[in-house]
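Reminder: ligand-aware prediction takes two inputs, not one.
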Amino acid sequence: MSPALPEGAAPPPDGTFPDWLRPSTGAGPRGFGVYLHVPFCTVRCGYCDFNTYTAAELLAEAGGRSAGHERYAETVAREVDLAARTLDAVGRTPREVATVFLGGGTPTVLPAGDLVAMVDRLRGTWGLAAGAEVTTEANPDSVTPDSLAELAAGGFTRVSFGMQSAVPHVLATLERTHDPDRVPQAVAWAREAGLAVSLDLIYGTPGESLADWRRSLDAVVACDVDHVSAYALTVEQGTRMAVQVRRGLIPAPDLDDQAAKYELADDVLGAAGLRWYEISNWAREPGAACRHNVGYWRGDDWWGFGPGAHSHLGEGRDGRALRWWNVKHPRAYADRLGAGLTPAAGREELAPQEVRLERVMLGVRLRGGLPLADVGPAGRAAVAGLVADGLLDARAAGAGSAVLTRRGRLLADTVVRDLTG
Ligand SMILES: C[S@@+](CC[C@H](N)C(=O)[O-])C[C@H]1O[C@@H](n2cnc3c(N)ncnc32)[C@H](O)[C@@H]1O
Ligand code: SF4
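Here is what comes back for the chain with S-adenosylmethionine:
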């Protein structure tokens, strides 16, 4: 069970955009990123509430006929055509696509040729920028040397593996299926194919000791990757893990333990030359940060293709922005596009003050910080207190920007609350 979609106004059936979304005269081109959701996994991990479906679930719903994998690239191509039509109609044709990110689910459940076909469709429609970043997420046991080489030959530049932990009992609690030894092997194959590699980790799993976490961090460092994302385990409602916690079979994650593990991650990764650039992300410099995700935090434009994907087009004529999201189920998604309708289930307009609020909430997460000029009077008045509490960097504040200290990264919600008044 993945979480419900937000509520919002129903979009027109053909997905037409409001006229206010036209760019104001003289507005420069905005960065345009593409997120492409692939809602398939081989099995569902016990902690995960992402919008993803196993083949067994989809087959059962379709009376055993088809899980829909084989037509997925074709269905997405219909949404790409709809995107091109509706963007053209309001004068927002992207100059080119700067970044592409295939996420899931597990995109590599599909044949590499299908992933390449989806990127080809984007290239044929808008063109990819020179040096575009093209990433796919992957489960370590869903790739082979051949599939990775095919992705690289088809224009992918980066792969992000869900490693989570190097410790067997932690992987077992997370109900992960991959063998930890598979991770260094998959990393080596990806490198040989010429791909940049990122690893995803989860910390604070019940039963994980600080020594276990250190072992996972050491394993990451030994892989010599140039990018790491580390997330505190969240027990999401509706997951098998939430049931286990409710029944007292496993304890809920402990926030102090997670804070200690965050600090250890920052120490170990920092010592290995990976520097934080966003609260949960570390990268080797220069240039290994995930440009696609930085685009989200900076409020760029992006189109999210696929079931349940969210999209955002910033600042039309009067400073408003538009956000919308697609229907969640892959079959509903395919049916709507097949009938010539938009797959969007809802949309909402963001007033200029909401756009500014989002800029603060997202921008402060980045090491580059947030210009204090973007913060309202109440937020600016809170800066001195946040510096005194050790949550914002004093020197950066003196130079006019809000940059989180390490303690501030651990208490980012408090900082955001104070900066947004
Ligand atoms: C779509 S998955 C990555 C690719 C692939 N499906 C896999 O898991 O190997 C995205 C990432 O979200 C993180 N994630 C998912 N559910 C989470 C949760 N409840 N708490 C913390 N991190 C979570 C995991 O680190 C996972 O690697
Ligand atoms: S493989 Fe990844 S997306 Fe699929 S259920 Fe597990 S964490 Fe979620």
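The two ends are 35 Å apart (CA to CA). The chain has two domains: 19-296, 353-421. We will return to this case in the review session.
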